[in-house]
Each structure stands twice: as C-alpha cells, then as structure tokens.
TrEMBL record:
Organism annotation: Sphingobium yanoikuyae ATCC 51230
Segments forming domain Peptidase M24 C-terminal: 533-593
GO MF term list: metal ion binding; metalloaminopeptidase activity
Listed InterPro entries: Creatin/AminoP/Spt16_N, Creatinase/aminopeptidase-like, Creatinase_N, Pept_M24, Pept_M24B, Peptidase_M24_C, X-Pro_aminopeptidase_P
Domain Creatinase N-terminal: 7-138
Name used for this protein in its record: Xaa-Pro aminopeptidase
Pfam families, per the entry: Creatinase_N, Creatinase_N_2, Peptidase_M24, Peptidase_M24_C
Keyword Metal-binding: yes
Residue ranges of domain Peptidase M24 in the record: 310-524
Family recorded in the similarity comment: Belongs to the peptidase M24B family.
Keywords: Hydrolase, Metal-binding
Entry GO CC: cytoplasm
Keyword Cell inner membrane found: no
Length: 593
C-alpha cells in the first residue's frame, strides 16, 4: 500500500470479493462529524485528500472525488487526476454521478453508519433509474484493505465544569426531557459528538482539534439517560459528575439498545443521525419522530457564562495573535521565514498564555499562491518562504476551557500592488457592512450574506465559501445550525446569544488570497422609535487589521470611522496585555486611518 494507486487497486479487488460494483467513501464518521478521528480518515487514506469535506466513488473502471469550492485547487494538488475525476458540489452530486456512470444492474455499496437516511433515499432512487441498486455492507471494504488503520482513541473523558458551562448537566437533560414531553416522545437519540459533550458537560480528546469523546446517548422523558462509551474512557471523577441518573454502557452495546426501544416514541435527527440508527429503530419496532436533535439550538445560543468566557478567551487570544503580528512585522522583512515556521511561532504565542488546550483547527498559513487555496494546509512539500511584495494569509484559532476562537488576518509583506490593496479593501468593506448590520428578529443568515459580497460583486468578483459559521463554546469551531451563506445552509433564524464568524474573502488563483475574519455575537438592538425587535452584531475578536493593505480612498467616512473605532477597541482590550516593543507596534498598527 505504498502508493494511492495501490490502495485504489486493493479496494477494487475487495469490491470484487464482496460482490460489489462500486463503493461510496464519505469523509465523516458514525456521528456525521465534520472533523473525525484518525480511524475514520478513510478518504484521506484512499486518495491523499487532506481537506475537511469531501466524498469519493469507486467503480471498476473509474473513480471520482467530490469537493466544494473551498477545495477546488487543493484537491488537484493532492489527488492524482490520472486515477480520479474531480467533481464539484453542489453543481453535481454523488447520486447524479452514479446515475450517469453506474452500469445497469450494478450493486453499489455503502456503509449505513456513514450516511444519512436522506442520502440513502436519494442515491437509491437515482440508481433505480439505471436498474442498479444501493447495497448496505456489513464490512466497510476500505477498512478491510487498510492494513495499519488506527484504533479509535482511548483518551479519558473529562468534566466540563459548571463555571465554564453556565448550566449543570442535570438541568440541561431536564430541559430535553421537558421538550420530549411536549413532543409526546419517550426518548431522544443523541449521536452528534458535540451534542453529547454539551448535554452531559463532558469533553474528550478523541478528535484532533475538537474536544469531544466518542459516545452515543439516549435521553429519556424522565430526565434519565443512557450513555454509551468505551469503559476504559471513564474514571471516578466523570462517574461522580454524571451521577446516578446517567446509566453507563459500553459503546459497542448502542446498536442493540436501539433495537430494544420497541413501542417507544423516539426522536432521531435526520441530519445528524446516520441511516443505521433509523434502520435499527425501525427494526426494533420504535415509532420514530424525525426532529432536530434537542441539544442543537440551546447549544448554539450561549448563556451569560459562556458569553463571558468567550470574551475572556478572545481577549487572551487577541493578545497572542497581536504578539505574532508584531513578530511577523519585525522578522518577515529580514527573510528566512516560511509558512511552517510562522505557523509554529503563532502556536507558541498561544501556548504562552498557559491556558491553551489545543488549536481549534490546523492553522491555515499561506503566502502568495498558497493563500489562494481556501483551506490550504501547509506541509513540508508545499512550504513556501514568506517573501516581500506578497500577501500572507493566516487563519487560526485556539481551544480554551472558556471559549473557542477563530480569526483570519491577511498581512501585506512589503508593498502590495494597487490591485492587491483594492481587493483587500473590497473584502474589508464587505466585512464592515456585515459587522454593522441591524436586522429584524427572524432574519436568516442567508439573507445577510449579500452584505459581505456586494462590493466584490460590483467588480465582477466573488468567493466560493460561506461568509459565516457558528462557533461552539470549547467545542466545534464549526457549529450549527446558524450560518451566513447563500448555499449549503443559512436558513436558521439568528437569535441573540449565537456566535458566528464574519469572514468574506477573495482568492486570485496562482497569486494571492485575502480573508478578514472576526467572530461576532448576535445581540438585541434597541432602536429609538423602532416598531420591531431588532438584532445586530457585537464584534468579539480583537487584533489589528493591516492598515498597509487598505486603499483608504475606497472607504467612505462611515467605513473609516468603523476601522478607527475597531482599532481603538483593539488597543483598549489587547494593549494592557502587551508591553515594550510589542505595545509600541500595536499603538502604531491601531493608529487612526
């Protein structure tokens, strides 16, 4: 298995052994997670693709990999086009591709623990048009040919203390129980790892960059619960924290437990629970209510303790990032820096806080053309020197007990061209427009997306990613249900207490990338004389925006005032945490335009 070509050949041979004419390989786990443990990185092992979203289909004579606009460049650099066709979503889908490429009578395999019920239905219907069928496998054929596949993590669970959570786990489960009673349901299946972490106030180290533990849970209408987790992950402190109302079982017993819910009315989330869960409930005779996981929305709406924790984490993180930006300003002109050395130095500044638990995702550290790769991941073979007359894009964040951070800054190394400054400023104008937005209660994120794109659109430009995603509280850096996007989501009404990113960008293939990202808190806004409840955003992230990259003549008076006011806040929040040359640099970086 020394090459990806060998792995593809081995998988095709295994499909023959399993009497299959194809197989679908998604990048997820049995919890429908975005970020997955090493044991579930099947797509990366098979293809070499290192992005965080994608799928593949393998047929006897052809294979295709499906990614969205964030990975258009990356997939071509990491996956061999001699063996794989590149397909873009949402322009196409696996179901549509299979309808066109599968042969009549084909048996296309899938792992029912890695797909939603809706996907299974869509693919089944598409294949039926070719006289082909979708077949659930008992053994995942990728696992069968992956000789050194890592075992799932055995890291211990840890208690997420009430001083960070703001609400104890018993109260959270009581709220879920009340919700179940209102729906005339007996129980809810929780399979999303961050929902379980939130509902039980536990965290883990089973997924890199995301502090969750591999587990399942069933919460009952009497506020008791069953938690399914590997026994070696438990300890006395966690058992005491969970209490007698939470029954502990081996994670391996979960599927059988679903089959034992005969006659019960059970809530399962069609977006977050895999097809296998629905199949087990059906087979066991449960009545299924297909409703959203009851932890999702309360998890997204942060309480006062979580908001205060986020602000403390953001202030701490902003100081670490500002120290890094000062370091870059001093060291980059000397030469010798690379994307990797810069990324390592930024992590060191965060570690110097003494409170960093982990990064919140792999740092995107890209200079020049690498910055144009939206979710670029630097490695030795792609590592570029940070040279003058370039843009350096760094998207990074930290996991702290009191909050999760995510921030992007684009830094002009030397003197940027007039075009670079113009496009940086168009992105900045969009960022400011969204930051200043005031909108009525009930507004969806998708309705705000155009605010960030309008100035780029006016110049015939755009970016192929959403403008904003939700962020967890010492949880997933990408958290739903709220989004600011015109595609792939954005239908959730925004509510006070939600945290989102504000991150418009622009990417010129082969030359440079630009993104300006802060986190924002949805808050209530009182409008004098207003007749409707209104909302707006409070900016939570504090680090300088590079004044050297701004074409100030393209900003109107209100936009210039926003930049100056923002930088004044940066100085007020971050300044007291710095001293000496770093403080002097910050004062200069935050000077009025």
């Amino acid at each position: 298995m020394s090459s990806y070509e060998d792995r593809l050949k081995a998988l095709r041979a295994q499909l023959v052994r399993q009497k299959l004419d194809g197989f679908v390989v998604p990048l997820t786990d049995e919890h429908m997670s975005e970020y997955v443990g090493a044991y579930a990185q099947r797509l990366a092992w098979l293809t070499g693709f290192q992005g965080s979203a994608g799928s593949a289909v393998v047929l006897p004579e052809e294979a295709a990999i499906f990614v969205d606009g964030r990975y258009t460049l990356q997939v071509r650099e990491q996956v061999d086009g001699a063996h794989w066709q590149y397909e873009s979503v949402p322009q196409t889908s696996i179901a549509a591709w299979l309808k066109d490429h599968a042969i009549e009578g084909a048996r296309i395999g899938y792992d029912s623990w890695l797909h939603t019920r809706a996907w299974v239905k869509q693919a089944t219907e598409a294949l039926a048009q070719k006289g082909a069928q979708l077949v659930a496998v008992d053994t995942n054929p990728v696992d069968a040919v992956w000789p050194d596949r890592p075992a799932p993590s055995d890291a211990k669970l840890v208690v997420h203390e009430d001083r960070y959570a703001g609400k104890n786990a018993a109260e959270k489960r009581a709220d879920i129980a009340d919700w179940l009673v209102s729906k005339k349901a007996d129980a809810a299946v929780l399979s999303a790892l961050d929902s379980i972490a939130w509902a039980f106030n536990i965290r883990g180290k089973d997924v890199e960059r995301t502090p969750v533990a591999l587990a399942y849970a069933i919460v009952h209408a009497d506020a008791t619960a069953d938690l399914y987790v590997a026994p070696e992950k438990m300890d006395e402190a966690v058992a005491k924290h969970l209490g007698n109302a939470v029954r502990i079982h081996d994670r391996a017993a979960f599927a059988d437990a679903l089959a034992d819910l005969k006659g019960k009315t059970v809530v399962a989330d069609p977006e977050r629970a895999v097809a296998a869960i629905f199949e087990a409930l059906d087979a066991g005779g449960a009545q299924i209510l297909s409703l959203r996981d009851p932890a999702v929305l309360p998890k997204a709406i942060k309480n006062d303790t979580e908001i205060a924790g986020h602000k403390a984490a953001q202030a701490r993180d902003g100081a670490a990032l500002s120290r890094f930006l000062h370091w870059i300003a001093v060291e980059a002109p000397k030469g010798g820096l690379t994307e990797l050395s810069a990324s390592d130095r930024l992590e060191a500044f965060r570690k110097d806080t003494g409170l960093l638990e982990d990064l919140s995702f792999d740092t995107i550290s890209g200079v020049g053309p690498n910055g144009a790769v939206v979710h670029y991941r630097v490695e030795e073979k792609t590592n570029r020197p940070i040279e003058t007359s370039s843009f350096y894009l760094v998207d990074s964040g930290g996991q702290y007990r009191d909050g999760t951070t995510d921030v992007t800054r684009t830094i002009a190394i030397g003197s940027p061209s007039e075009e670079m400054k113009q496009r940086f400023t168009l992105v900045l104008k969009g960022h400011i427009a969204l930051a200043r937005a005031v909108f009525p209660l009930g507004t969806r994120g998708g309705q705000l997306d155009v605010l960030a794109r309008q100035y780029l659109w006016a110049q015939g430009l755009d970016y192929a990613h959403g403008t904003g995603h939700g962020v967890g509280s010492f949880l997933s850096v990408h958290e739903g249900p709220q989004r600011i996007a015109t595609f792939g989501g954005g239908d959730e009404p925004l509510v006070a207490g939600m945290i989102l990113s504000n991150e418009p960008g622009y990417y010129k293939t082969g030359e440079y990338g630009i993104r300006i990202e802060n986190l924002v808190l949805v808050e209530e806004r009182a409008i004098a004389g207003g007749e409707k409840p209104m909302l707006g955003f409070e900016t939570l992230t504090f680090a300088p925006i590079d004044r050297n990259a701004i074409a100030t003549d393209l900003l109107d008076a209100g936009e210039r005032a926003w930049v100056d006011a923002y930088h004044a806040q940066v100085l007020a929040v971050v300044g007291p945490q710095l001293e000496g040359e770093a403080l002097a640099w910050l004062q200069s970086a935050c000077a009025p335009l």
